[in-house]
Write a structure and sequence with these properties.
Blueprint lengths: L4 E5 L5 H15 L6 H8 L6 H9 L4 E7 L2 E10 L5 E8 L8 H15 L4 E7 L3 H9 L3 E10 L2 E11 L2
Parallel strand pairs: 4-5
Antiparallel strand pairs: 1-2, 2-3, 3-4, 5-7, 6-7
Helix pairs in contact: 1-3
């Protein structure tokens, strides 16, 4: 029997676990199209630093939620405001051991409910174009593809896409 999934706000002391989940997500999800040196370089940068994660957790303008199962953080997401008034879903990772069990869906449902209570018109999310599972997930949640482009990660230029979900 699966333990219940508890969704709650992250605490600063949990930033290390969030970093671990992000690194694991990058290593397991992007290994087929991002070279190891480029993954390592990006993961060592500021986006995944403990300091950056703590600042997101402590910033009232941001939303950092975790999914906890039996005391273990099984997944998390971060949402950050943009100058346009929209928000961007900047990180969304579920531990591979818990994927396919509704963790991601429940995390998103909770975040979606919170966002709908506010004045946020739109949620944006950026996904590597070759992350097919991620793209299917966002499409099932109702996000629409709005842009196909490329981005540079280390020495590689990779296929990149943007999705939008209107809340209003």
């Amino acid at each position: 029997m699966q333990q219940p999934i508890v969704i709650r706000g992250a605490l600063p002391g949990e930033a290390e676990r969030l970093q671990e989940l992000g690194i694991t997500g990058w290593e397991t999800t992007y290994a087929s199209f991002l070279e190891p040196a480029n993954r390592r370089g990006y993961l060592a940068g500021p986006f995944w630093s403990i300091e950056r994660l703590v600042s997101l957790i402590e910033n009232a303008a941001c939303l950092t939620l975790i999914a906890e199962i039996d005391g273990t953080i099984a997944g998390f997401l971060t949402i950050e405001p943009r100058l346009s008034g929209e928000v961007e879903l900047t990180r969304f990772y579920v531990d591979p051991a818990y994927r396919g069990n509704g963790v991601g869906r429940q995390l998103w449902q909770h975040a979606h409910e919170l966002l709908q209570r506010g004045l946020v018109p739109t949620v944006l999310v950026n996904v590597f174009g070759d992350n097919h599972a991620g793209r299917r997930f966002y499409e099932r949640l109702g996000f629409s593809l709005i842009e196909e482009t490329t981005t540079v990660v280390g020495s590689q230029t990779v296929y990149d896409v943007w999705y939008r979900l209107a809340l209003r």
